[in-house]
Amino acid sequence: MAAKTARSKATPTKENGVRVEEGLSLFKSDKFDADAYVQSKCSINEKDIKQLCSYLLDLKRASAEEMRRSVYANYPAFIRTSKEISDLEGELSSIRNLLSTQATLIHGLADGVKIDDDKVSDESLANGLLNFEDNDLSDLEKWAAEFPDHLDALLAERRVDEALAAFDEGEILVSQANEKQTLGPSVLSSLQFAISERKQKLADQLARAACQPSTRGGELRSAIAALKRLGDGPRAHTVLLDAHFQRYQYNMQSLRPSSTSYGGAYTAALSQLVFSAISQASSDSLGIFGKEPAYSSELVTWATKQTEAFSLLVKRHALASSAAAGGLRAAAECAQIALGHCSLLEARGLSLCPVLLKHFKPIVEQALEANLKRIEENTAAMAAADDWVLTYPPAGSRHASTAFQNKLTSSAHRFNLMVQDFFEDVGPLLSMQLGSKALEGLFRVFNSYVDVLIRALPGSIEEEEANFEGSCSKIVQMAETEANQLALLANASLLADELLPRAAMKLSLDQTGHRTDDPRRPSDRQNRNPEQREWKRRLLSTVDKLKDAFCRQHALDLIFTEEGDSHLSADMYINIDGNGEDVDWFPSLIFQELFAKLNRMASLAADMFVGRERFATSLLMRLTETVILWLSGDQSFWDEIEEGPRPLGPLGLRQLYLDMKFVMCFASQGRYLSRNLHRGTNEIISKALAAFTATGMDPYSELPEDDWFNDICVDAMERLSGKTKGNNGEVNSPTASVSAQSVSSARSHGSY
């Protein structure tokens, strides 16, 4: 997709390399059968083809990223070596010329040529030539004497093309004269010196002219081409790059950033100047010097240096202030503008975006973190005054007129609105590979909001004070009623299951370039980003924390009194046999209250979780499981039943069995009978039967038939629900008719 730590930078590279290695391991095997592999892939369906295409694209991206990282890891050393080789070649050429000159002089001396100093005029010395008093000079010698003056005239009149042609002509004649020995060694040496001196003079003129800001593009290219023809290619290329640098530096004088100016406008203007100069320099370099590695390396080094300088300017004048203020949109827009201009250079073989990312990524990450922190703090402030009543989005808000209107409390509406705005800003973060960091940051913010919702549960106050005594927690409005507490769950579940994943889909694009959240396109689960599916799973697991806290609180409210006494003790079953009174068979009070609580919550949830009935069902299922599993795991309860001074009697066993049957009946009727609940009730019944059997009695001889329990459970549910039976009959106690034969082998308690 730097404030990401060094570990987070290195990990994706390592993971990409491992992923590519694993993908290629199949093809490296000696047992790889190409025909069988192709046949297996040809028999796949359309869904598998899409997955294969997606997998291959991931491999392509990973390999390209790995290659790019490898190239940039060694590129500075390559450029430095190339530069040193180029400099060494120039020095070798200079040494060769010096040796050639020395050889010519030595050859002349060896021939015994003597030059009389008195015969040399001051004027001829100035011209670098020797004029002899001999009046019988040849035409070539006369030309050699006049040629320096001709060159001086051409240079004075700035007739560059003619001067270059004259240099070529002079060098050809010098070469021929050297071969045929038509000129004396001293004259030849003086002529070579005159040509070399005037070449240097022309080169200096061309270099000065090229670096003038007023020099137009065509004139610059002509000057550089002429400088190259003079035989000094490295200098010509360096002058070309310096000329482009001087030109855009001159143009930058009109850019004066100020505290009131718009950072995006400054970034756009500056990046237009810098990257246009780099683009033009690249074009001129390729047109004049071709693809010679030494010049290409110098171009890349120069372009990288200019990009570094540009990055620092943008960071100082545009990004820093935006990031400090938490302006993610402004910071991301500035970075996106610069990256957009920079990416256009990739067509010319200049991949400079990593240079920008090295400077921009940390500061945009700073803005990202500041933005997430603002969401967290504003939401917590809203929660301090939230009445936990579900409402539609406030009228006039941006999301009030959308097709996705959902009921949330005020703090959740605020959280959702800020998240939607946040994801409107993070589109440019994809080009900086910050999409994963944005998702991770938002997960932390949502997790913090869920913690706020947990603190809003009344039962969490004492627990928080016990666990964090002396700590300073944020103030939050308590959710006093069951409706308020269910609203907490409605907030968390709707945000995690629908609103946040839908907003996060703006981070992913399909292969056609359309956003996957486009309402005009049907949703496609197979096209979702695996990273976002895993992110949604983590959001939902965070909601489970709130769900567990909710169920634990309500289970404890049912089981314990305010004074700490238990409503669910062993005595309520053991004491039944010692009362000596007729028993009015009905489920125990605590399970009546559990049934009533579940009915109330189911009625409230029907209005709060419209379209999300599955979540409401799982909540009721979890609450029932919490009570039953607590009873199953209460060691003090079972110690009293199994080893207490008074054993569990027949009536107590029947009451416990009736309570468990009642739980199974209303859970089955409400469609929240789970495997955990089924296993928990069976375990409780099995323990009770084992404890009763230990007294020496047969439990099945004391238990009525299942129909008796079922009738009582149905009657209890109707009476507790305010319903009346179709007939006015009463449920009679079948104690007298109970026998061991009346209970079938199905009463093993593992089969219902």
UniProtKB/TrEMBL annotation:
- Recorded protein name is Exocyst complex component EXO84B isoform X1
Q: Where is the composition biased (Basic and acidic residues)?
A: 512-534
Where does the record place Low complexity bias?
A: 733-752
Please report the stretch or stretches of sequence annotated as the Exocyst component Exo84 C-terminal domain. 142-351
Coiled-coil region: none
List every stretch annotated Disordered.
508-534, 723-752
Which InterPro entries does its entry note?
Cullin_repeat-like_dom_sf, Exo84, Exo84_C, Exo84_C_1, Exo84_C_2
Q: What domain of life is recorded for the organism?
A: Eukaryota
Does the record carry Protease as a key word? no
Entry keywords, A to Z: Exocytosis, Protein transport, Transport
SUPFAM superfamilies, per this entry? Cullin repeat-like (SSF74788)
Gene3D superfamilies reported for this sequence: Exo84p, C-terminal helical domain (1.20.58.1220), Exo84p, N-terminal helical domain (1.20.58.1210)
Q: Name one Pfam family in it.
A: Exo84_C
Sequence similarity: Belongs to the EXO84 family.
- High-level lineage: Eukaryota, Viridiplantae, Streptophyta, Embryophyta, Tracheophyta
